[in-house]
């Protein structure tokens, strides 16, 4: 059973069940939950479409077959693409060993199916033997999921937020650092220093990190390598493949083949 939108009226902290899962269906428009927090940790698994999660100083754009882990009591916002399908898994503090920081996890098929099975039975009491067994197996496997570097460091600085917003929505029209400096009425050197100070990355590395996340969204959504390269403003598919391989250690084709094979 799928829940419409974002579990209206659900209070994650009202229950002390070790784990609760819900399958979410987003309607034909982008949906956003503003900043909030809860006692429980939350795993957001993208099944179809994608979800962007933001915490202080960082943004996670999670494509299908990945999940973002948000520890308990950490303020965050969520934004899902139109028609996205997601799973929310809420975990009671201390129930299983999970990272104490936000991170992106590559979800193995077994773990994905365990979360879906738990979501399909969310009306059953947590003490039911079947729920207990599912939860125990999930907790055995969940800490083993590999982390992926798919976060984009951001900050509250208005000029950087303007840059991120543009790069998100105009990925096929990349701007150079010099072009940004002119638009923001700054010297190129001062803008470069601002980006490093706020994100820990050079402008080129920061922009490529966003492009990498966007590339995964596009290719897991059905676009081929050439289409993804074009959508991200690359004149050469070879240059796009080089960027991808440098970041993730494999060509896009091999990376996606390995992901789909589980």
UniProtKB/TrEMBL annotation:
Against CDD domains, the record matches this protein to: cupin_NimR-like_N
Task: Write the protein's name.
Answer: Helix-turn-helix transcriptional regulator
Q: Which UniProt keywords apply?
A: DNA-binding, Transcription, Transcription regulation
- Which Gene3D superfamilies does the record associate with it? Homeodomain-like, Jelly Rolls
HTH araC/xylS-type domain location, by residue? 161-258
Q: Is Transcription regulation there in the keyword field?
A: yes
Taxonomic classification:
Bacteria, Pseudomonadati, Pseudomonadota, Gammaproteobacteria, Enterobacterales
Respond yes or no to whether keyword Membrane is given for this record: no
Q: Which PROSITE patterns would you find in this protein's record? A: HTH_ARAC_FAMILY_1, HTH_ARAC_FAMILY_2
């Amino acid at each position: 059973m799928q829940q419409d939108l974002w579990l209206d009226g659900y209070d994650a902290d009202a229950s002390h069940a070790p784990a609760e899962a819900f399958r979410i269906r987003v309607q034909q428009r982008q949906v956003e939950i503003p900043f909030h927090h809860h006692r429980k940790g939350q795993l957001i698994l993208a099944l179809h479409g994608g979800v962007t999660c933001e915490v202080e100083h960082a943004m996670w754009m999670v494509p299908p077959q990945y999940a973002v882990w948000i520890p308990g009591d950490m303020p965050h916002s969520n934004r899902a693409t139109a028609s996205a399908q997601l799973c929310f898994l809420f975990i009671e503090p201390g129930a299983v060993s999970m990272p104490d920081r936000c991170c992106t996890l590559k979800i193995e098929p077994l773990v994905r199916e365990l979360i879906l099975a738990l979501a399909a039975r969310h009306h059953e009491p947590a003490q039911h033997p079947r729920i207990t067994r599912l939860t125990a197996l999930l907790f055995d496997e969940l800490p083993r999921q590999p982390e992926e570097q798919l976060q984009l460091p951001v900050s509250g600085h208005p000029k950087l937020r303007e840059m991120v917003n543009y790069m998100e929505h105009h990925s096929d029209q990349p701007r150079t650092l010099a072009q940004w400096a002119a638009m923001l009425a700054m010297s190129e050197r001062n803008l470069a220093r601002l980006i490093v100070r706020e994100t820990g990355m050079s402008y080129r590395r920061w922009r490529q990190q966003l492009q990498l996340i966007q590339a995964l969204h596009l290719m897991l959504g059905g676009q081929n390598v050439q289409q993804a390269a074009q959508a991200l403003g690359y004149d050469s598919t070879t240059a796009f493949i080089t960027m991808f391989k440098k970041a993730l250690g494999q060509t896009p084709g091999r990376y996606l083949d390995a992901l789909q094979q589980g």
